[in-house]
Amino acid sequence: MDVENSKIIGIVGGMGPQAGIALYEKLIGNTQATTDQQHLSVVLMSFPKNMVDRTLFLEGQVSINPAYEIANVIKKLIISGAEVIGIACNTSHSAAIFDVITSEVSKFGRKIKLLHMPLEVCNHISKNHSQLSRIGLMVTNGTYRSGVYKNLLQERGFEIIIPDRIFQNNVIHKMIYDLEIGIKANPTIIREEAQLLCNEALLFFKQKNVEAIILGCTELSMILKTNEVDGMLIIDSNECFAKALIREALISEFVKTNTL
Predict the structure, then answer these.
(1) pLDDT for position 5
(2) Fewer CB atoms inside 10 Å of the end CB: C or N, the chain?
(3) What are 140-189's pLDDT values in tens digits?
(4) What is the pLDDT of residue 119?
């Protein structure tokens, strides 16, 4: 691995107390290194107090688009030397947010590679798990509403299984967001109530004969740390995204397409 000529990776954190850390850990775990010096250079920035909640924005409960603050953090990362940048939040890749981010970043006049997490996840599935047919989604209400994963997967010919809005809100979203028992509220110790909600979600997908489940929220890898449950493949968006960031950091020259 040519670390000498590798690019610095920048991570936009702060959207979930451990989201940025979780992605950084996946970078370390997927890097082929035996010494400290063989690991890639990474800049992680986390400014949570400035980040408007992405789901609240997408649901119309707040009017401020978090894209502008995310773009501000990206600018700081660029100043710090980052050339390959990833946002540690699936929901922020919804078009209403991500399109504004790319527009703002294009004004900086710097050549960087800003990766799109759901796109990288779906490309990973197409490349490595093309035999799959029925795929379930575990996401926040914001990502659920945006349809970003659903649209990308359907374009690739997969059948997407998602719960109705009531189950989505009362089970999956609650597991992530509940102020008492949710993963965001208890990032270091998963509450039993959250684990029970996770089990309920897994049972739903199992009964729908799902072959794989995408963990389409960065926090979900904290509660589901296995590659398979009841015969269902678990696809961690953080894992896929980390591999994509490593790939781009090791490319010697930028390709013009999809480069800001």
Answers:
(1) 79
(2) N
(3) 999 999 999 999 999 999 999 999 999 999 999 999 999 999 999 998 89
(4) 98
How far is it, in rounded angstroms, from Cα 206 to Cα 212? 9
The reply to whether 193 and 124 lie within a common domain is yes
Q: pLDDT confidence of 27, banded at 50, 70, 90?
A: very high
The CATH number of residue 152's host domain is 3.40.50.1860
Q: Which is nearest to 236 in space by CA: 224, 245, 244?
A: 224
pTM over 0.85, yes/no: yes
206-238 core/surface letters (b: 16 or more CB in 10 A; e: else): eeeebbbbbbbbbbbbbbbeeeeeeebbbbbbb
146 is in which domain, residue-wise?
A: 118-237
> What's the CA gap between 222 and 217, in Å, rounded?
10
List b or e across 133-148, with b for residues whose CB sees 16 or more CB atoms inside 10 angstroms: eebbbbbbbbbbbbbb
Any idea how long the chain is? 260
What pLDDT does 253 receive?
A: 54
Contact by Cβ (8 Å): 108, 186: no
